[in-house]
Input
Amino acid sequence: MLFNLLIGALGLFFGWWMNNLKDALKGLQQSDKELADKVASIEVLVAGRYVTREEMNQSINLIFAKLDNIYAKLSTKADR
Output
């Protein structure tokens, strides 16, 4: 009878432990899904707007105009 009581208590403890483990696993799966959704939304936000070819050409033209201005000033500079 003591053996049956011990096996029953051990089974009860093992069942309780497995239930807690299952609940913890469900919680981790839920938080993993939420985190994956957040990462996906960030990817869409980051990749949402790229620089267009016209904007890039305007920026490059402004840089080259500034460089031409600097070159012109350096060309007219008299060395001491």
About this structure: The chain has one domain: 2-76. Helices lie at 2-46, 53-76. The two ends are 110 Å apart (CA to CA).
